[in-house]
Amino acid sequence: MSDALRQSLDLSVFWEYRAVLLHGLAVNFYVFAASAVVALGIGLGAALLRVSRLAPVRWIGTVHVEIFRNAPEYIMVVWVHFVLPLLLSLLLARRLEFDPFVSSVIALGFVYSGYFAETFRAGIEAIPRAHIEAGRACGMPERLILWRIVLPQVVRRMLPESLNQFISLFKATTIVSLIAVPDLMYQVTMVTQQEMRPLPLYTGAALVYFTVIFAAGTLLRALSERWRSKIYA
Amino acid sequence: MINHSFERRSFRVPTTAQGAAVNAADAPNIRVVDLHKRFGALEVLRGVSFEVHRGNVLSMIGASGSGKSTLLRCINHLETPTSGDVLIEGRSLVYRDADGKRAPRSLAEINRMRRELGMVFQQFNLWPHMTALGNVIEAPIRVRRMARKEAVELGEECLRRVHLGEKSHEYPARLSGGQQQRVAIARALAMQPKAMLFDEPTSSLDPELTEEVLGVMRELARDGTTMIVVTHEMGFAREVSDRVMFLNDGLIEEEGPPQQIFGAARSPRLRQFISKYLH
């Protein structure tokens, strides 16, 4: 009994396949990085719409945020990968297929743009009007005030909240295995089918994800605290 | 607290009680014409007109809610006047001439004209993510397109002028209120404006720190800076201003040289106000 238990708890098989599994983890990072860029870019755009003076512009931003915040990541990924190409094919009268990597980046990017939009909006609205007036009094145009005075402060203010969003995004990249993106979970599934030893493999994967997130999170929190403490003394 | 050794430069034009320019060639730097400002149903400014000449210091005093701050903010268009005009060196800040008809000025034009007016706020309004020097050189670099090296030199000169030369690399969070306000003054000076507007610059400061800021303002006045100061510091108004304006309920109740306002006030409301403040 203990022999079988010892055998099933043996993580060496995880170590054996480390090259393939490491490639998988790298794919997780690529998806994460690309989705983060998309999410930040679209999120910032949506946030700026939300704080506009014009009501219809604000409405567009709100619609975007509500749709994507309330969409589960898995469903979005599947929809973008399987349904969207069909719709576009009908529209453009051409047969379209999305690369699974592209689908996952689009899907995760849009879903998380909803969260980042709210994060940015809260940050922008927290900037005292006084700072903006000081910029105006110096003759600064609105766009300059946004880029040089509002956004730098928003980034610093919202960094802790954003770190949490980034961690969620990284964890969400694990679902891309379901549309055959060769990430860590996908590789683990493949190896398990070959080796028939799910326990060390899945446990190993879980440990890897945990370690990466914990280490990166701790390091980034420490760095961001030092950066923020300069102005929030 | 009042600096009795204060001397004024002799060539500054002392204006008469009616506000007319003694020297015809000395065109008014800032002119406000029949300014009205309404916030919804509340009319805060009910027809204010006055002039400020180059190199002169105008103090605005009055009770809270009299419209002093609103008036000041209309002068650099932080508030849009409901009607009336503000002229900076003869050019309207509020309207432009569009084929003989009057149209509101575009925001870009207003921003360009705002460069000539420096403003100092009650709450300092420094940008916390930049150092003192960063705050001071931001506008010269980005708005006046000055080269960085030149701007840094200008910035350090401005900070030295407000006696904060050694603090140029500190962040605002590390500076006292008086130091922050002086950085704010340096920031306004760095744009080399034609006139400086002060909106209750010492109202958030305790008496010690108030004095260091007032000292800087006195030096600016002595150097011939055109200044409009909204203040509760009666001593400063009496000692440093060329003219004092008493606002009450959205109108200029009385206006004239400090000796008249503080010594021989004509309006009873003004006399009441003065007696409350100067005890």
Report on this structure:
The complex is a heterodimer of chains A (233) and B (279). Chain A has 233 residues and is mainly α. Chain A has a single domain, classed as MetI-like (MetI-like fold), CATH 1.10.3720. In chain A, 82% of the residues lie in helices and 0% in strands. Chain A is built from ten helices and no strands. In chain A, helix 3 crosses helix 6 (100-126). Chain A is flat and about 75 Å long. By secondary structure, chain B is an alpha/beta fold. Chain B has a domain at 126-192. In chain B, 34% of the residues lie in helices and 25% in strands. Chain B has nine helices and twelve strands. Chain B has helices at 68-75, 107-114, 132-142, 148-161, 177-190, 207-222, 234-240, 258-263, 268-277, and strands at residues 28-39, 42-53, 57-62, 83-88, 91-92, 95-98, 101-104, 117-120, 195-199, 227-230, 243-248, 251-256. In chain B, the strands form three sheets. Chain B has a six-stranded mixed β-sheet, sandwiched between helices. A four-stranded antiparallel β-sheet of chain B has the order 2-1-4-5, covered by helices on one side. In chain B, helix 3 (132-142) runs parallel beside helix 5, helix 4 (148-161) crosses helix 5 and helix 5 (177-190) runs parallel beside helix 6. Mean pLDDT of chain B is 86; it is low at 1-25. The chains are: A mainly alpha (233), B alpha/beta (279). The interface between A and B is medium-sized, with 23 and 31 residues.
Outline the fold blueprint.
The complex is a heterodimer of chains A (233) and B (279).
Chain A: H1 2-9, H2 12-16, H3 18-50, H4 55-69, H5 73-92, H6 100-126, H7 129-137, H8 142-172, H9 184-195, H10 198-229
Helix pairs in contact in A: 3-4, 3-6, 3-9, 4-6, 5-6, 6-8, 7-8, 8-10, 9-10
Chain B: E1 28-39, E2 42-53, E3 57-62, H1 68-75, E4 83-88, E5 91-92, E6 95-98, E7 101-104, H2 107-114, E8 117-120, H3 132-142, H4 148-161, H5 177-190, E9 195-199, H6 207-222, E10 227-230, H7 234-240, E11 243-248, E12 251-256, H8 258-263, H9 268-277
Parallel strand pairs in B: 3-10, 3-11, 8-9, 9-10
Antiparallel strand pairs in B: 1-2, 1-4, 4-5, 6-7, 11-12
Helix pairs in contact in B: 3-4, 3-5, 4-5, 5-6
